[in-house]
């Protein structure tokens, strides 16, 4: 089992590479959302791994990585350091970064603070830079502790996957997210989930693609465009639908758009909308 041993936890990861054996492919690091794991990228791998080396870690606290205690002090710098150490372990200096949902918040801070590591950034269905709703944190913690992660996942699943996602798929995602350790969810919500990262956006220097939907519950197209335009070399792709977890509901479309963007990200292009 591929594991990076850190001082306070073990970081599980997967590497998918179906490129030609004589090729020297670029690498993409993929960051999942809250209460998820590297498995969340299952539909992206067939699209990307034929052309790129795909690295999919389980964020500390989730999946097969070590659960974190509820009192653990989560920080962006620690998460970024985890991922940089993983890529160092794999011998990869520069890479593309793709992230979904709150993983996109971590990824935007990553791009701002470690610009020398990134070739491009793609964030898919990610919250606003200044996310409303921090007042919910005490109630969320009480729900996690008294009713469990699956109760929270089921209660909040409406809107994540849109109106066309199959019922069997909704149930799979509910149970998948419901397996997240409660102790990790508690600390993550306190430290990361509602952080204001507005000041980081103008510091992002790599080509950046932002993907959302027409009626995302994480913010209107106009509000998404407001923060996207604060990233100097960025563009916005708006897909039809209401899903805010568009990396799951429209996985193949997002993956193909991301692959195309990465292939030509060295050349400035107009906004797609």
Proportion of residues in helical segments: 25-40%
CA gyration radius, whole angstroms: 17 Å
Number of strands: 8
CATH topology: the name is Rossmann fold
Describe the protein in words.
With about 270 residues, the chain is of the alpha/beta class. The protein has a single domain, classed as Alpha/Beta hydrolase fold, catalytic domain (Rossmann fold). It is built from ten helices and eight strands. The protein starts with a strand and ends in a 10-residue tail after the last helix.
Summary, kept brief:
With 273 residues, this protein is α/β, with parallel strands linked by helices.
Secondary structure elements and pairings:
Layout (H helix, E strand, L loop, with lengths): L2 E3 L4 E7 L10 E5 L13 H4 L4 E5 L18 H14 L5 E6 L1 H12 L4 E7 L12 H11 L1 H8 L10 H12 L3 H12 L14 E6 L7 H8 L5 E6 L6 H4 L1 H13 L10
Parallel strand pairs: 3-4, 3-5, 5-6, 6-7, 7-8
Antiparallel strand pairs: 1-2, 2-4
Helix pairs in contact: 2-3, 4-5, 4-7, 5-6
Considering the chains and any ligands shown, give keywords for the structure.
273 residues; 8-stranded mixed beta sheet; Rossmann fold; alpha/beta; disordered C terminus
């Amino acid at each position: 089992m591929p594991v990076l041993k850190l001082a306070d936890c073990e970081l599980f990861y997967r590497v998918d590479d179906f490129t030609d054996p004589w090729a020297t492919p670029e690498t993409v690091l993929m960051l999942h959302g809250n209460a998820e794991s590297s498995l969340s990228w299952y539909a992206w791998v067939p699209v990307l791994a034929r052309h790129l080396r795909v690295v999919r870690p389980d964020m500390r606290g989730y999946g097969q990585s070590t659960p974190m205690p509820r009192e653990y002090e989560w920080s962006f710098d620690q998460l970024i350091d985890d991922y940089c150490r993983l890529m160092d372990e794999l011998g990869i200096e520069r890479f593309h970064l793709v992230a979904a949902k709150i993983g996109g918040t971590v990824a935007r801070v990553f791009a701002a603070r470690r610009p020398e590591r990134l070739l491009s950034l793609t964030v898919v269905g990610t919250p606003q830079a200044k996310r409303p709703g921090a007042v919910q944190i005490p109630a969320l913690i009480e729900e996690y502790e008294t009713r469990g992660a699956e109760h929270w996942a089921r209660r909040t699943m409406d809107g994540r996957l849109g109106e066309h996602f199959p019922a069997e798929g909704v149930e799979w995602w509910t149970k998948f997210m419901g397996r997240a350790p409660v102790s990790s969810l508690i600390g993550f919500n306190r430290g990361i989930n509602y952080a204001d990262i507005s000041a980081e956006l103008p510091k992002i220097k790599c080509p950046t693609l932002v993907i959302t939907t027409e009626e995302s519950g994480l913010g209107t197209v106009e509000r998404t465009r407001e923060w996207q335009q604060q990233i100097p070399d960025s563009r916005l792709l708006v897909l039809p639908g209401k899903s805010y977890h568009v990396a799951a509901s429209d996985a193949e479309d997002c993956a193909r758009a991301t692959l195309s963007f990465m292939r030509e990200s060295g050349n400035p292009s107009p906004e797609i909308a």
